[in-house]
Amino acid sequence: MTKQKTLWGLSALMAVILMTGCKNNNLFGGLHDEGSGDAESLVVDGNAALADKNYAKANDYFEKALAQDSRNAEALYGQAAAAMGLSGLSVGQLVANLTQNGGGSSLQGAVRTATLPSLQVHTANPDSLLYNINPGRLDDALNVVIVNLETIRMGHSDGKISPNDTSLLINLGVARLLKAVSEPLKKDLIDILEVSGEYTIEKIKNPLVALDGDCLVVDRSVLNVGWGYLNLEAAALKLNLVSGSTLDKVKVDVNDLYEKYGDEVSPCTPTSQFPPPPPAAPTDGIDPLDLP
Asked: pLDDT for 65-95, tens place per residue?
């Protein structure tokens, strides 16, 4: 009888452990206080906060995880998603918009339907790629997103996320394209508009002045356009999106956008080739003064 009671007790204990732990893909994942524990536990908590769209809490958990393990790919990726959410964009919705087939929409349409209603702010030009988004807040978030995702893509993380992961490439590509718009817009230099699927460049400051550092901003913008193109091209090839998807259309349009830079941003004529050589460091294409 004693042996039978012991077996029943062990069975009950295992049932509790399985119910509390396996939902996190971790046998003992439920046996820690939320927001505490090792890096893996904090990543689980961060992902749960992301699912609840609590981006501030998610960012806090991923930040704590990275303090323990700076190479944790899942924490790097999660923090990037949280940063985008705090800026006003839903990463998951944006990726879904870009990978849809059967015509899809423009990059402008993909961004607008991924904009979180609670964080919308009106900007001057409704044709702006970043209409309804705060360019300064987005630019700050993109600095985190780009550094984190490039760290994974360049193989500097723990390898839990492949450097060639399709979602990683799409997110990084879009982050680079958005960075090409957000920094010069934040600094009131130029804006990128999209009208009927065609990109145009609007000068806010005219003329641009090289001695003011304007051309450095433009050069970084051009590089980010090129790097965004490379990432989206790699993702499109992996997904076999030859034509008809939003991602494929964006890739083609980005090529056209680069060609327009040379005509529209004089005297800051881009000097880099298209597409440019891949970045050498995760921080490439970001103003060092803007890095967190």
From this structure: 999 999 999 999 999 999 999 988 877 787 7
Number of C-beta neighbours around residue 80 at 10 A: 27
188-208 average pLDDT score: 84
pTM of the model: 0.81
Q: What is the pLDDT of residue 248?
A: 67
3-state secondary structure the chain: CHHHHHHHHHHHHHHHHHHHHHHHCCCCCCCCCCCCCCHHHHHHHHHHHHHCCCHHHHHHHHHHHHHHCCCCHHHHHHHHHHHHHHHCECHHHHHHHHCCCCCCCCHHHHHHCCECHHHCCCCCCCCECCCCCCHHHHHHHHHHHHHHHHHHHCCCCCCCCCCCCHHHHHHHHHHHHHHHHHHHHHCCCEEEEEECCEEEEEECCCCCCHHHCHHHHHHHHHHHHHHHHHHHHHHHHHHCCCCCCHHHHHHHHHHHHHHHHHHHCCCCCCCCCCCCCCCCCCCCCCCHHHCC
Confidence label for 262 from pLDDT (cuts 50, 70 and 90): low
Give the integer Cα–Cα distance in Å for 68 and 91.
25
Spatial distance between the Cα atoms of 157 and 145, rounded to a whole number of angstroms: 14
